[in-house]
Write a structure and sequence with these properties.
- The complex is a heterodimer of chains A (303) and B (407).
- With 303 residues, chain A is an all-alpha fold.
- In chain A, strands 1-2 form a two-stranded antiparallel ribbon.
- In chain A, strand 1 and strand 2 form a beta hairpin.
- By secondary structure, chain B is of the alpha/beta class.
- Chain B folds into two domains: 202 residues, Response regulator (Rossmann fold, 3-Layer(aba) Sandwich), CATH 3.40.50.2300; 151 residues, Rossmann fold, CATH 3.40.50.2300.
- Chain B has 13 helices and 17 strands.
- Chain B has a seven-stranded mixed beta sheet with strand order 8-7-9-10-11-16-17, sandwiched between helices. Chain B has a three-stranded mixed beta sheet with strand order 1-3-2. A three-stranded parallel beta sheet of chain B has the order 4-5-6.
- In chain B, helix 2 crosses helix 12, helix 3 packs parallel to helix 4 and helix 12 crosses helix 13.
- Chain B is globular, with a radius of gyration of 24 Å.
- The chains are: A mainly alpha (303), B alpha/beta (407).
- Chains A and B meet through helix 1, helix 2, helix 5 and helix 11 of A and helix 2, strand 8, helix 7 and helix 8 of B.
Amino acid sequence: MEQILGNLSLLAEFPVINLKIIVDGLMIGSLFALAAYGLALVWGVMNVKNLAQGDFVIAGGYVSWWLAGLGLPPLLGVAAAFAVMWAVGWVVYKLVITRVIERDMFTSLLATFGLAIMMAQILNLLFGSDTQSIQLQYDTLYFFDGFIDVPIAKLLGVLLAALLAAGVILFMKASRMGQAIRATAQDARAARVLGIDTEKVYAFTFSLNAAICGAAGAIIVMVWVIQPFYGISYSIRSFVIVTAAGLGNLPGVIAAGLGIGALEQYGAHIFGIGYQQAVAVLLLLLVLVVRLVQQRRMRRSLQ
Amino acid sequence: MKIRSIITGLALLPALLSQAHAQCKELTVGSAISLTGKYATDGTHSKNGYDYAVEKIREAGGVRIGGQCYNFRVIYYDDESKGDRGATLAERLINQDKVQYMLGPYSSGMVKAIAPVTEKYRIPMVEAEGASRSLFNKGYKYLFAVLSTSEQYLASAITLAAEKARETGKQPSSVKVAIAVENDPFSLDIRAGVLEDAAKFGMKVVVDEKLPRDLSDMSAILTKVKVHRPDVLIVSGHSKGAATAVRQIGEQKINTPMIALTHCEVADVVGKFGDAANGILCSTQWAETLSYSDPIFGSASEYERGFKKAYPDYANKSVPYQTAQASAAVYVLKDAFERANSLDKEKLRDAIAETDLSTFYGQIRFSENGNNIAKPMVMRQIQNGKYNVVAPSEFASHKLDWPRTPR
């Protein structure tokens, strides 16, 4: 308790810490938002709650790390991870997801949970359980007497994430496939009647999700560290963000992602870094309660 | 003609048998160790250490018990880095494979899970990778550990800081300490050791935080470090803790005069982060530059060379202490078997308890509780990308670079 109060008074004493927390939080949050956007896509279009979301992120990170070891420039690794994870996503869809898509929620949850365990273990066997990262030889920008540090690598990561998000949005709005995906999300049966090959749409959506996650992972390995068993923390955050923002609400996903990033940093500062993720889970609970109350009220008004 | 050849064949048979008799018998030892799961890397380092020692002892003529020679054979099971699995596998080794002696698993948590089983069946276990001091206050009679217990890991950094304070004309009690350790038994022991020593000098602890299991960002702590300006920063969180700390210490330009970590080597902080790692103190159980030696493995540096030859995977990195201490554990078993001069596990246990052995890994002598009390922890400082021993002073090859120069 004493420590918490001390940390709070630090915030008041050094207002620049607030800025530092928010800057850090937004940088982290942009990557959370990316992974969460993929989840929202799969959830919304296929009604599959993908528990292996975080493991796709980590796998993408390893793809980029492995290629960097072979001499590929890390920034190209983002594109490479996108492509490789697209293929992985397609294979996973054809092997697993297509069989559970029509089943009830528990089947798909169990299947993707199993997938998550498998992926973590396969990464472990392939690359070992050590933490890995790519160190980019860029400078760090300093503001406010060196209090706020913005490594250019991180800045590049955020930029790449924003670019990717913009690309995906544009794709969903403008392209034929994007329209088909949105149509399928609205009503799969009607889309089928109108001649949309929903099986193809599903495969495409799932691959796209894996690819987005892969790219996010490739960025993460440049700015933080990865380990085969880190997937779960990205899965949890994706779920929190999607639950908070709702499906098919892209600006909401981005806002929630950035918000959670910043709130987690505040949580880490005030309660200690050990509670950083607890803040995310607590938020999930809060969001669920609020949603429940909202829905109850709506039902009442309908009655 | 036919009958003759059969007779000569039969006559040769005893000769063949006695030749087989002259060869060494097998001495089966069991170990449940992490080959998959989160401890897979370290588990494999340990297994390689065991295997290398088994091979070296075989080359040196095996274990001699009652005029007969034996070679170790280790039965391994993968505990998947899960405690309950480890305990089940220990039961299986003892009940199904009829193993009478055990080598330890990797990590304190796993030893904690297995020790009650070996204790129940009165199976002596020499372990090399469980340093938590909570293992040695339970009154276990069959558990022995060759390594220094974990509260000693970073405590010497506090002593060093006190020395430096005195040298610069300040009171040791004016030293401010920041601690960030993972929330697991091993790191909490480290924290306890540091807090104990800091209290002894009357130092003030300004930051005291616990790192989560899946740490990848500790900028929140480092920001506090920036504000509080401690004189010592202690971080322990296995390899992810070391990697995250070094990267962000570089990014955030943390210029604390003394920074001490664990697991620098396994995280390869020099290879990954280069100059950012400069001046950081790393604790280790063992270093190949130390002046210890023994007849089986030779000196510490000979051990390193021999091991690298046998395991070319390690050619481009230094051999981790996890491997060295695993080899030392097998050596303790050999020594104890020969002194017990018996295969009886009770006699073996008593012989292990009386061990007083000089090894390439350091002196090994067990306390009543089974932990090694003869070997000190070693502190190395990263100086121009090299790990140089700076403490304890009697083994130090280099001078401590203080205050730390990040470059």
